[in-house]
Protein 1
Amino acid sequence: MILRYICFINLSRMINLILFGKPGSGKGTQAKFVKEKYDLVHISTGDVFRFNISKNTDLGLLAKSYMEKGDLVPDEVTIKMLESEVENFPNAKGFIFDGFPRTTTQAQILDNFLDSKNMSISMTIALDVDEDLLIDRLIKRGKESGRIDDQDRSKIQNRFDEYNNKTAPLINFYKAQNKFFKVNGVGDVDQISNRIFNTIEKKT
Ligand code: AMP
């Protein structure tokens, strides 16, 4: 049995990370390790939507109609939800944003929102994986988890199209701020975590 050894690291200043990448690139898996290592609050907008869907809230009902098709949920809904999630953790040492921002509007509003709290994005780490590999991963995940948006190739393709059209422009948005770092997202889970940890420690 391989034991995962998480060494807790206390960075001297607040770090706010964006985990970036196409659907299935491993953001959620890696966010959990990064959260433990640096004692951060992990906010996954997809998880918050899925939680609301499971509770049949108004937000859940609205989000479901978009998520089922693999479309992005409208910005105004997603941004409001994200801001309230951040405000739930006034004493956080930092945040991992997983699946947010996904549009330029979301990124601009996130910058302004954090600025109003004397906070800022420290870096964006993109998990780089080819689409062919991602399709196999997503279909497998759909079978295991029952996630509807992972089970159908046309919905998966629509999510890639949403990413390529609306989310990929954020690469240049964060490059212009010198905050964009790409990490190879193929390999053992531990290997990928170490690549992320090395990037964080080199750049913060
Ligand atoms: P994820 O779990 O990050 O793959 O997200 C699942 C789905 O939730 C996406 O396909 C979108 O429909 C919705 N979603 C999650 N995050 C966002 C976001 N930042 N903006 C718009 N829609 C989102």
Protein 2
Amino acid sequence: MGERPEVLKLMEMRKKALLGGGKEAIEKQHAKGKLTARERIDLLVDPNSFLEVDMFVRHRATEFGMDKRFAYGDGVVTGLATVGGRRVVVIAQDFTFMGGSLGEMHAAKIVKAMNYALSSGIPVIFLNDSGGARIQEGVDSLKGYGDIFYMNVMASGVIPQIAAIMGPCAGGAVYSPALMDFIVMVKGTSFMFITGPRVVKAAIGEVVNEQQLGGAEVHATKSGMAHFIANNDEEAVGIIKKLLSYLPSNNAEDPPVVQTGDPPNRADPELDAIVPEDPNQAYDMKEIIRRVLDKDTFFEVHELWARNAIVGFGRLNGRVVGVVANQPAYLAGVLDIDSSDKIASFVRFCDAFNIPIVTFVDVPGYLPGTRQEHGGIIRHGAKVLYAYSEATVPKLTVVIRKAYGGAYIAMSSKHLGADFVAAWPTAEIAVMGPEGAAQIIWRKELAVAKTSEERKKMLEKFVQEYRERVANPYVAAGRGYIDTVVKPRETRPTLIKALEYLVSKRETRVWVPPKKHGLMPV
Ligand code: HXC
């Protein structure tokens, strides 16, 4: 028996909907090296898990020939699915219909999907590929953007929001990804800017192409807008899946615990020799991070931006932690404007989503100079203090080497509420570096040196004296500002013990004065 006519009609409509803007447009999309919205979703979600919503939504516009143009779905595919067995809401713009441009109904679908995510506590994944506001729909399209931005803000800190930029994303449209927690960009095929090359040229005469203005590399290295970059759509989807595996579904849940098979009491003798004897010599902090965390679990965020700081996720005894560190191998690990922003925003994300923070410290201070001062290093640096002080998740700190001055306080010190601070025997906790300090303390003595050679020798002696008396972990440990001094090899077992004991820390048991919201310097 054949299908009933009503069912045949449904099948016909589904077939049409699956084609979006049509075969030709799909071929064009492929020719650009991009997958379609549906192909991207297929790659992302578990087989047969996708529950599509609003497949038959159509726009209501009639002007500018819109009454003769429509596609079921209106240029965006939305629904619920699982990724690695965990629920997500997926929004994928379909460039094949009118360039994925956003009109009234397109926006309404996105808002509906976000409502599912918010009310059920499910992360939202938004795959952007759009020419922006649908020009024919005018203010209805602007209203749609406004509604989406509002939802992004309502969802902020409640559910993880992940954006991938997989094509154009221009004008005000950039503010939805900007309000989300993570942005993945695809090299070559994606770009993000407020005003495109043509307007830039007309307005200020600057000649620049789309990629130079807002391509993936630019946002990953210069603006810091892209947390991750991928070589193609497949890789971008892979990054999203990996990122999700570290995140809880919402702010009322803990991140997933997995068995990593790495023994919690594994000591690592190689760590004992990792810090060079010369205190001014660089080393790679990532080596320490990798050795301390469960094997192969470090997942760096913002890898290419503000490389004097390191942030990322990892696991300790299977539990997710957020890792923050200074990187002595880049600009000596100083704090500057960008690294302060990088650290502050990551710490706040971890705090919002119940992810304990482990901080590895080797910081000589703040970057000096007019560029930093005039750029507002005071304001940006303050964000680090704010974010750490405000965070109520377990905060564990390891002082590896330098912890000087204000930067010592900022980097998750006991004074900002760190729960457990360990130091290596190589730690130098002081107001400033021994060289500078010795020149101030022994200024008069140094002034009487007859030759520069004599002065140099005296200074060396004073520096040594300062090091012995001050620049070590024991003065701070004597006051209880450092909870314990550990052999480097013992770092992992010690951190895991601390984490296992402190993991039940909850914001409801930490006193914070009642307030509407604080005012983080921005
Ligand atoms: C309506 C659009 C569109 C838009 C693209 N299309 N953008 N239709 N509104 N915003 C249509 C094209 O007309 C074309 O239709 C199809 O989508 C594919 O576009 P192409 O131009 O062929 O693709 P490509 O060469 O890859 O170029 C993509 C593009 C370009 C760079 C995005 O289309 C473009 O510059 N579009 C205009 C972008 C723009 O000005 N948007 C408004 C920005 S302001 P046909 O029928 O030929 O297939 C904005 C404000 C948001 O977004 C405010 C929020 C607060």
Protein 3
Amino acid sequence: MRVIDAAAELRALSREWRREGRRVALVPTMGALHEGHLSLVRIAQTEGARVIVTIYVNPTQFSPSEDLAAYPRTLDRDCALLNDLGVDAVFAPKRDMYLPDHTTWVTVDGLTTGLCGASRPTHFRGVTTIVAKLLHIAEPDIAVFGQKDYQQARVIERMMRDMDFPVVIRVGPIVREADGLAMSSRNRFLSPEDRAAARVLSRTLFACSDRARAGASLAELCAFLDASLADRARGELDYAVIAHPATLGEIRDLSEGALIALAMRFGSARLIDNILIEPQK
Ligand code: PAF
């Protein structure tokens, strides 16, 4: 496995692979890898492509009040895991990927205003800007993202479409702990009490999904969601939203399905989770 620090070296390697007739798949991460990330790598590998994992804690997607300094950095462990998995290259730039006087941003309007965008107004422009940079550097055929960051995946797909990026986006399913908690690099910040309490996220989503499958209406689902979240001892709710799965906007019924998305803060950890509801006939 090659561990690369320089953008030019990564681009040259990717071009070499493509000259050899190989496809290239990119899995962008911020490191502190867990099984959720590794599942995305396996998806990339099933494409028969050379796989590049990027590890970069992107400062522009954190607001000044967020946990950039505290974000876990475990590069040696991450590289060992990726090497064991048979990844072809890791791009782990040591320097800042932005020049001190950079002024260019890639922004996606609309999709970025609700859900996480409401409480993190500058987050998605940081994500789209760094993802655009990584795609320009690595020039992959495929890029893989996780459904846990559902809004992020939709926003990146929109950027691809609107900016004519010739990259196929794959979205891998959420990987959960045995008790249902969605895997996240931030779970390590949970106290034992918060770790137990954080199960409310997946428990609520699964219960909503069961009710929707049993024929609950949108109004019934909203009432159930509110009641389930009201009945909790810990965790500060950021949002609980039932939205259109493509536009992320409001819906009147479940005829086109729905996204149920939650964000909650437990101590210093802000956790997100979601589930998709099938269209109701
Ligand atoms: O999902 C993440 O880990 C990050 O938002 C990403 C896509 C690597 C961009 O920094």
Protein 4
Amino acid sequence: MSFDDEDTPLAQAAAAAVYVRRGLKGTFAAPASTRVLTVANQKGGVGKTTTAVNLAASMALAGLKVLVIDLDPQGNASTAFGVDHQEDTAGTYDVLVDQEAIAEAMVAAPGFDSLWVLPASLDLAGADIELITTVPDEERPFRLREALDNFLAEYEMDYVFVDCPPSLGMLTINALAAVTEVLIPIQCEFYALEGVQQLLRTIEFARDRLNPELEVSTILLTMFNTNTNLSAQVADSVREFFGDKVLTAAIPRSTYVAEAPSHGQSVMTYDPGSTGAVAYLAAAREITERG
Ligand code: ATP
Ligand code: MG
């Protein structure tokens, strides 16, 4: 059974709910080697965290092994998984600044068998400046890459998602130096493409100077509003610009998606039959199928 083979939205929702509840493991193909994606857009509130959290949750529910690295001092991804991230919690800060091992600082996400989170506490807000003042120039962008290389040499993971803050500072640069794939969530609203050029230039800079393997592999349309023409127009122009990098699945605006984090949950477990959950499952499946 596959939830997205059903032809009506209601049937899809019902099938997706069953899918998530039964935890039909093995439904998503595991990649030949670990895929590491950074979810980036310096524009705030476009759905980066929601995307990282729900794609990771979808994949973990399908039995894949997933690590989410919370690289945002706001710690929203940590909150969404119900993971502690008050000050002094070991997490991303310790990995970047004190070179602690990822395996030492990550925690298992409650309610999942194969999902781990490297939490971000507010300490991380100071990491930028600490890295700049204490770490040599040539080493500074590579702290995350080094930690991740060491981790992946020892631990088997299918997917790693890095949730970036809404800026193009040293944290995001560390993310771009550490991964091969960038996933850009684009909110379906009027100013959507503004700022994307700047992001693309930063990615190009990172590819030229830090990480020749870096590429934008995936674009996801978020907060699609089916009641307005504007969303459809934005989606068209994004598809025109980015071509087949844009996933077929677009994420609709959905109250359940917005509510889930306040319950310390992804929407995949909070309301698996909601339109948002169905869409994130479909997006996750597409990513695994695109390889
Ligand atoms: P920041 O730049 O602050 O890190 P972000 O890009 O990570 O933000 P999110 O935190 O994922 O964006 O989303 C911004 C807000 O929009 C949140 O309140 C979130 O719950 C809400 N939201 C995200 N996706 C949806 C959706 N599909 N439907 C309704 N609300 C959504
Ligand atoms: Mg965020």
